[in-house]
Write a sequence for this structure.
């Protein structure tokens, strides 16, 4: 994904690194949908102050035209975060709409880019956002485990998404196809909102969050079904990323399943 930064304001120009880094970080899970992104910062009220720091994010999408999102705040950081959060929601809605109506998407996303620098912690972030709640063993809680498998390597792979559909996973879990996509969308939003989470270099979800998500499933039969679906999903691109391995190992550990299941998968020919 090509990222362009534009600003005529000297103070805004100092935010170049932060704006580009945050955009790369936030969109890395859907970067294959956006070949080019532009961030524009401007001060619309000059020295008079107020809610005048504007961030405009322009996304040239693959197959859905141009998406332009604008947000204003009293400071640059808040304006950037608000614009990126809205942009991500719009992208996920476009992705859902395209799959619901059967429109074409790129054949294959490009390989994930090298890890970008992690944004500096925001001292104003109270970390009050939590993952949305689903009833234990509910279809939505189970669907979120599949979303975790999709995102555990740090990006959405079209091959894995196609595998999700070919497995008829939504029917297996008792969800409609759109309902499962909504769960995936919601999980993406929760991850992006929980900026206080400890994002590791291997898995994109920290161990405490992994444990909480796994604890939502305590039905033995459902656990076994989910593990089989997750194994098929991560194997769809013929590559087991380190984050995917962390996620599968956590599932086996928290659910008390035989480790041979993962060992067999790792050694199976691709």
């Amino acid at each position: 994904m090509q990222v362009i930064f534009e600003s005529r304001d000297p103070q805004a120009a100092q935010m170049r690194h932060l704006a580009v880094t945050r955009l790369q970080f936030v969109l890395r899970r859907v970067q294959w949908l956006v070949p080019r992104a532009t961030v524009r910062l401007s001060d619309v009220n000059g020295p008079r102050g107020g809610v005048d720091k504007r961030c405009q994010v322009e996304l040239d999408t693959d197959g859905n035209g141009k998406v332009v999102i604008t947000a204003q705040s009293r400071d640059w950081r808040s304006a950037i975060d608000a614009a990126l959060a809205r942009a991500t929601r719009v992208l996920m809605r476009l992705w859902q709409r395209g799959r619901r109506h059967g429109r074409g998407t790129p054949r294959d996303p490009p390989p994930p880019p090298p890890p970008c620098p992690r944004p500096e912690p925001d001292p104003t972030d109270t970390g009050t956002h939590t993952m949305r709640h689903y009833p234990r063993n509910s279809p939505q809680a189970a669907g979120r485990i599949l979303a975790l498998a999709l995102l555990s390597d740090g990006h959405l792979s079209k091959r894995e998404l196609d595998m999700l559909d070919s497995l008829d996973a939504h029917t297996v879990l008792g969800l409609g196809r759109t309902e499962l996509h909504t769960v995936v969308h919601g999980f993406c939003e929760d991850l992006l909102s929980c900026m206080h989470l400890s994002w590791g270099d291997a898995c994109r979800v920290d161990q405490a969050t992994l444990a909480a998500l796994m604890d939502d499933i305590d039905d033995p039969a459902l656990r076994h079904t989910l593990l089989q679906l997750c194994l098929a999903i991560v194997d769809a691109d013929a590559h087991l990323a380190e984050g995917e391995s962390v996620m599968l190992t956590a599932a086996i550990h928290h659910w008390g399943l035989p480790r041979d299941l993962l060992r067999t998968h790792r050694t199976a020919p691709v």
Notes: The radius of gyration is 20 Å. Residues 103-129, 195-203, 266-270 have pLDDT under 50 and may be disordered.
